[in-house]
């Protein structure tokens, strides 16, 4: 599978983790990806409903549980990642505060305009269709809600981050796609991520 928009290959176990290699990839992602800056930029208000696209092993889900969000949802195409991300949260899942599903950026399965915050970190490069993904995330975001898309980059990237960073023309392609649908699009260069926030 390759993103038709960004041309990034996705044959590695990090793109669609499956089996033993996929579980190992998930544990590595959990160790390597520090997302505190993402949480700060997302600025989750009390009572918010939040959707993470591509939650992987659940690192950001764990951080979101420390906020005052009312409901934390996620979609990911990997059943292995759903199982891994769900393990620490059985009580919250049973209570309905956390809802982790199989799905994609272009097909979340959620109703229109239900989320105050939507976030995708380090997976936009492997979406099969950038425009379809952004259109779907616009659809599920409430008016006045915020989308955050972030990818490898930033002001002080590690060696691993630098090797996975998108070129500026691909970053520009993401920004143009966002501006075609959302308002108030802003670029943010974090320590190891380049991101965009956009308001519906």
Note the main attributes of this structure.
single chain; 200 residues; alpha/beta; seven-stranded mixed beta sheet; 8 helices; 24% strand; globular; methyltransferase activity; methyltransferase; Methyltransf_11
Description of the molecule:
- This protein has helices at residues 19-32, 36-42, 59-64, 79-86, 90-95, 130-140, 159-164, 168-179; strands at 49-53, 71-76, 98-102, 115-121, 141-152, 183-189, 193-199.
- The protein contains eight helices and seven strands.
- It has a seven-stranded mixed sheet, with helices on both faces.
- The protein is α/β, with parallel strands linked by helices.
Give the arrangement of secondary structure elements.
Layout: H1 19-32, H2 36-42, E1 49-53, H3 59-64, E2 71-76, H4 79-86, H5 90-95, E3 98-102, E4 115-121, H6 130-140, E5 141-152, H7 159-164, H8 168-179, E6 183-189, E7 193-199
Parallel strand pairs: 1-2, 1-4, 2-3, 4-5
Antiparallel strand pairs: 5-7, 6-7
